[in-house]
User: Fold these one by one.
Assistant:
Number 1:
Amino acid sequence: MTADPLVELVGISKEFPLPRTVREWANRRPARAIHAVDRVDLSIAPGETVGLIGESGSGKTTLGWVVARLHPATGGRLRFEGVDVTRLSGGRLRAWRKNVQVVFQDPVGSLDPRLRVWQIVGEPIRAQEHARRAELRRERRRLRRGRPSNAAGAPPSASLPPLPPRLTTAALRRRVAELLPTVGLPGDCLDHYPHQFSGGGRQRLSLARALSVDPKLVVLDEPTSALDVAVQAQILNRLVELQRARGVAFLMITHNVAAVRYVADRVAVMYLGQILEVGPVREVLERPVHPYTKALLAAAPQPDARRRRTRYRIGGDIPTLIDPRPGCRFAPRCPFAQPRCSAADPPLRDAPGAPGHQVACVRAEEVAEISPTTLLQPAPEPVS
Amino acid sequence: MTEPVLSVEHLSVDYLVAAGRFRAVTDVSLSIPPGRVVGIVGETGCGKSTLAQAIPRLIPEPPAKIESGRIVFQGTDLVPVPAHRLPLVRGTGIGMIFQEPLNSLNPAYRVYDQIAEAIQIRHWREQGILPVFRPGPTPFDYSRRPMPGTAEVLSKPIVPGGATAEAAQRRLRTRADYRREVLEYLRLVRINDPETILHLYPHELSGGMRQRIMIAMALSEKPSLLIADEPTSALDVTIQAQVLTLMKELIDEVHASILFISHDLGVIAEMADDLGVMYAGRLVEFGPVEAVFHAPRHPYTKALLRSIPSRYKDDGPLPSIPGSVPSLANPPPGCRFHPRCPIARPVCAQEPAPPLREVGSTPTADAPAHTSACHFAAEVEQLP
């Protein structure tokens, strides 16, 4: 990990308060809350891809939205290039948004069906242009006010930063047309509507929109979960190419372990709002330490017809996020759980014998050597 | 070889809509022997769901139209059966498990009512209160057999077994009987604490639970053929692994044949005994699952298997299929895969699409032949 990360999350929490019920009001108890993200520490280096894997309801999308400042965090600090942006608002927030862009999960719902391609992809460019002009205007106003009088006789705007010319539609269309081939779309589809594209095409459009303002970080929220394997391979290849060419960092949120394996440099595993394991991709996927990571990897069905007739051993459903009890979140489903697992939240600490690989398990030393395949107990041979 | 439960012969299904004629399924033939799991895999829009819905004739006609072919279920062709007789086939004959359990369960009914309804219908059919599906009466050929003699008719009792036997058989089933049977099926699908689940509504259950209820409903009618259309696609990985494990155990317990449809090659590899690969409405390869996975004999199957991400970023780009899936309104002439095929020759476009031809293994008593619809199936092995 480099010394100065691009994004740094320090104890980030996001709670969604539930409406206070009559019983809570009568008993003078506070309202309960959904702890979607619970004291998460994570950092992303410039040009790096961090994969965030977990099941639905683990809070990974919420975390992505918090990083992009689409949700304000309810606790902790979010630093971007060393600057605290947790409390940024108004015009400064709008100007900051060019640094972090999001590719949303649903390629149908996140593209306005009434806008044409150049309007969709050009919208962030327009918005950033607007934010930049507003910033400049503010700056000019401040300078003008700071000057006591205009006695020197010089024209008032001589030393002020000049306002750039307004972005014309033709210029915007030109910029969009230059951008489209980089994501693998033809440059002459500027006047198409989103419904004229296939699922993969829409996802490329979404990616072009995110890249239009040259961000430093793109949050990819399930970029391939709506796509088939063949199209997924095209998109994943494109993501890696774009990253090499532009040096953009990705936070890739997905439940698809195979996609993360190909794209990510580092992987964080999330369960019920907490990060249970984080480390280099090969380390985490080949030598997982946390029992949940093992369970998740064992559960992914392998496209190999020879490894069949296996039985999956982890039972139970994903518990609720409403006011979770202290202790390891995975303890109720964990096959290796002990009473001390539920005593207190296990801190994220270095995994035994691997630098940069951190795990939140009190029994890390004892369970590290257990292979994920032991969670798939072989079925008894059918009697013929 | 034993008589197949279902055999589909040269089935073509078109959608006739204002935009034109979409050839969703073209000339598909397959047969499902008793007690075997036949998987169908393919990308979005390849017609696999249309096939799944056309077999029990659940597909809305119009816009869909079965253009040609036969669907022979237990010796009867379902295509000419009039719509009002079709409900008799469904349920006790052909059961369905759908993708989205929340949309397929009635939100206004409790779990008990949903399953009890299915059980009740089965009982009524078993007792002859509700009609069961029989092939229509064949017209009596007077030229070959004389009319039954009058004396013969008079000597037989009108009700077989006499009126009292019938009454005993038709004893009233109480709510407690149904409850006992519903609980039995809930335990069969490994639901802990079924007494509580009984009184819940579908929205109070988790996704995995709902899918278990769907499976319990489908099994409680004791169908001879179960069609599972993407049964685990809406579920999370660990929950999906639980449901797949359950289904594998149930396959050994109930002796139904299963048509398992999925876009996920991993899931198919776990579940299916035989595997069919569909591309743009056609079945391009069919055979025992191990043969198809380890020695694919159609270039599309090979490319599809290769595009599963199984490597890291520094190992080089993922192999992917160039181009995109053709429109079913205007499919390419000849073999529909030829515009994207690495070994395509002029003959692939000029000649009509090749039929499924035997390659490699010959059919045995318990495994079908490995067939491929490619002119150059022998060359596929040499492809990277």
Number 2:
Amino acid sequence: MGATDGGREPGSGQFVQRLAAATCSLLGIGSTVPVLAQEEPTWALDTSFLYYGESDERVQDLSLNVLARRLFADDKVLSFGLVYDSLTGASPSGAIPLNEVQTFTRPSGNDVYTVQPGELPLDDTFLDTRYALTATWQQPLGRLYTGSVGLSFSTEYDYTHAGLNFGITRDFNKRNTTLSLGAAIARDEIDPEGGAPLPLAPMGNIGDLSARRPGTEDKDVVDLLIGVTQVVNEHLLVQVNYSLSDSSGYLNDPYKILTVVDPATGEGIARVPAPGTAGPLHEYRFESRPDQRTKHSLFVQGKYYMGGKVLDVSWRYMTDDWEIDSHTLEAKLRWPLGDRGWVEPHLRFYTQTEAEFYRPSLPVGELPEFASADYRLAPFDAWTAGLKYGFRTASGNEAGIRLEYYRQDGSVPDGLLIGNQDGDALSPELDAVILTVSYGFDL
Amino acid sequence: MGVEPWERGVLAKPEMQLVVDPLEAGIDDHIYFSKEASSGGRGFGGGGCGCN
């Protein structure tokens, strides 16, 4: 460990540039800096601990993240990533609050849970452990090209992901312009608790799995990306990316439901479970989404150096054939503190329109082809505000702590409300705290 | 537009890389992928989880 070629001293350009190239490769984007020769292989390790906690006993995540990069002579880089997530808490089921006690059959079909009048129905059986692994190899291809190939794999209780990605970059114009091309394919398998509900099937009593399809469902995802990075001057760097993402297969969330309501009042429809068994006291149906989705994204990022401070701003526009449009605006300002420290305030604003088949409830007797009450397909705005403090230790390692607050705020459009429903009451607000502690060192 | 090779001192600084902290970028992508209808842009769309 040291501050020589492999160290983390600021301005140790070769190390930084090689890591930058490796980082960009991992994220499927191009780098503007060449990778330079390395005398002896070294490992660079980044580690991070994450606490993510939502209010109202919703999702809590404790996560450990490690990224290890081995830097070889002749500019080749091997990277491994490992993520461990421990998730607990409850998540909105999609059902709306009612003025009466609500009872729901759990996804397993073995039990029921109860929600009090006026409360947002949350499914509290949410508990999972997730492991994710990535491996990437990157190397120069001739003088101006860099190529990469990567694998990704993750597994959790009811979900498995396997993916493959490729990237190539080419430098132009004295390496002031870099063109990046990337492609990724993935196959995900979903094995829902209790089987996948048939689209819009009614929620049944305990033990009734007749409207479930046993076995696994799958989803294929293809991503394509093209990007240009341009050095504007000594202090300004700009990147523009266009990406296309196509998903096909099982795109439902098997645990999300819709409340069936009276078309005149918007109130729930009472239901009586079969004699001798327990089950829902109102009518609910499982959601139904299209089996195909195509997303287009435009991403623009600028980095500007101002006498030691660095401003990082970005904008992303996303549009898809589910008729969701979104904008994401983000800004970070890194401000040096003393010789080895810095602070970085961070602001992020996000806004999205609803999917064309989003509806907070379903009038009785209506059975559209597609319907979902998932809050992530609803219209909402979200804010993130945070602050990071980082410093370099005497031995040249980097440590950081970051605290952020995330808030989602939505309101159901009047056109989707039925009877006496209140748009604000049907939109679950979300508040979350994000805490990360990170440490990076070389071996 | 652009610079000569000897004018890259500032651009080579760690804090001037497009992605300064890849772990943090990955964590953020995963959080927002789980809570919003959009993902990717900077890189690939992410995913690979049945996030609730």
